[in-house]
Design brief:
- Its EC number is 2.7.1.172.
- It comes from Parathielavia hyrcaniae.
- It catalyses: N(6)-D-ribulosyl-L-lysyl-[protein] + ATP = N(6)-(3-O-phospho-D-ribulosyl)-L-lysyl-[protein] + ADP + H(+).
- This is protein-ribulosamine 3-kinase.
- One of its GO terms (molecular function) is protein-ribulosamine 3-kinase activity.
- By secondary structure, the chain is an alpha+beta fold.
- It folds into 2 domains: about 15-110, Phosphorylase Kinase, domain 1, CATH 3.30.200; about 115-330, Aminoglycoside phosphotransferase (APH), C-terminal lobe (Aminoglycoside 3'-phosphotransferase, Chain: A, domain 2).
- Helix content is about 40%, strand content about 15%.
- It has 9 helices and 12 strands.
- A 5-stranded antiparallel β-sheet has the order 1-2-3-5-4. Strands 6-10-11 form a 3-stranded antiparallel β-sheet. Strands 7-8 form a two-stranded antiparallel ribbon.
- It is elongated, with a radius of gyration of 23 Å.
Length: about 350
């Protein structure tokens, strides 16, 4: 067990259970806030070891049932991603509960120094993402889509019940998110969204998901990060290697992670997508990839509208993209209806 003999108020010293997770014989040198988090507190903990060297750790702590869920999501997600890409993920240590506060939960990992202001260029960013997908492809512990626990996008719980079909799994999640998006806005009427929602669920999702699993095709689950916005991927201090963290992991279709690169909210765009396709093949049918990319972008846009309901722009953004996909499917259907039927000469 480490010790915390800092000259601070007793209530500011580290809890006994957290000290037990730190290196044996270490002495806590400093505890400082680390980064921004809307739902948990985060800290940088420096520990001096008996040999005179130092180690630095990252702690995330949350209170109550919501805090427990966020901490569990962080620990299990980071442990899973670290297994496949340890060079790109901070090494998890443990999760636990404070002895002094049984309602307070914590996640502990090794702290990685990163360059805060720079967004990794496409080659570095994609090297980490593609490595995670490629190394984990086909290694789902059940062979299905899902995850051992329900992970969190912010504090938004993600239903990760193991499911054999990607279409069924993703449709269930999207239906759930749209219900929660409505609840987050207190059922506030939105005529266009009400019109589009059933068309999206009943026409768009089958149109772009079902072909992945029909006519001899299938989706092989891989581990995805599921929250690759720029705040969760930074350069390590070498200015070359990308570090990924704060995942809300699940075993799913690898292309889900690419939705963020299309989102105009973030400074990515086509160079990141092109770099990814150099390393990982496009799923068949290839001709649907652009629309699937829009669909997977829509997932995170809906989730943001749930988390920040007081920003009306977020709702209008995802509604406009939903309209785009609905109209594309309707145009396809109209073309099919207008196509002349071949006459039989028998």
């Amino acid at each position: 067990m480490a010790t915390d003999d800092r000259d601070v108020d007793e209530h500011l010293k580290l809890d006994e259970m957290l000290l037990a997770a730190l290196p044996e014989g270490g002495k806590v040198v400093s505890v400082k806030p680390s980064g921004l988090s809307d739902y948990c507190n985060t800290y940088r903990i420096e520990v001096k070891l008996p040999d005179g060297s130092s180690q630095v750790f990252f702690e995330k702590e949350g209170t109550g049932e919501e805090g427990r869920g966020c901490v569990e999501s962080a620990f299990v997600s980071e442990s899973a991603t670290y297994e496949f890409v340890p060079e790109h993920v901070p090494r998890p240590v443990t999760m636990g509960v404070y002895k002094s506060r049984p309602d307070k939960h914590f996640f502990l990992a090794h702290f990685v120094e990163m360059i805060e202001d720079d967004i990794p260029r496409s080659e570095s960013y994609i090297a980490a993402v593609a490595a995670l997908h490629s190394r984990s492809m086909g290694k789902s512990p059940t062979g299905k889509f899902g995850f051992p626990v329900n992970t969190r996008f912010g504090n938004l719980e993600q239903d990760n019940t193991w499911t054999a079909s990607w279409e069924v799994y993703f449709t269930r999640q999207m239906s759930d998110y749209l219900e929660r998006e409505d609840a987050a806005h207190n059922g506030e009427p939105h005529e266009e969204l009400e019109r589009l929602r059933p068309l999206f669920l009943e026409k768009v999702l089958p149109r772009y998901l079902r072909p992945l699993e029909t006519n001899g095709r299938s989706v092989t689950p891989c581990l995805i990060h599921a929250d690759l916005w720029p705040g969760n991927v930074k350069y390590m201090n070498d200015g070359e290697t990308a570090c990924m963290y704060d995942a809300c992991a699940m075993w799913g279709h690898n292309e889900v992670d690419l939705g963020v690169f299309r989102n105009p909210r973030y400074p990515f765009g086509k160079p990141y997508l092109k770099e990814y396709w150099k390393r990982v093949p496009i799923s068949e049918p290839e001709e649907d990839v652009d629309n699937r990319n829009t669909l997977y972008m829509l997932r995170s846009q809906i989730m943001l509208s749930i988390l920040y309901p007081h920003d009306p722009k977020l709702r209008e953004i995802f509604v406009s993209n939903m309209r785009l996909l609905v109209e594309r499917v309707q145009e396809e259907e109209a073309t099919e209806c207008d196509r002349p039927v071949a006459q039989s000469h028998l």
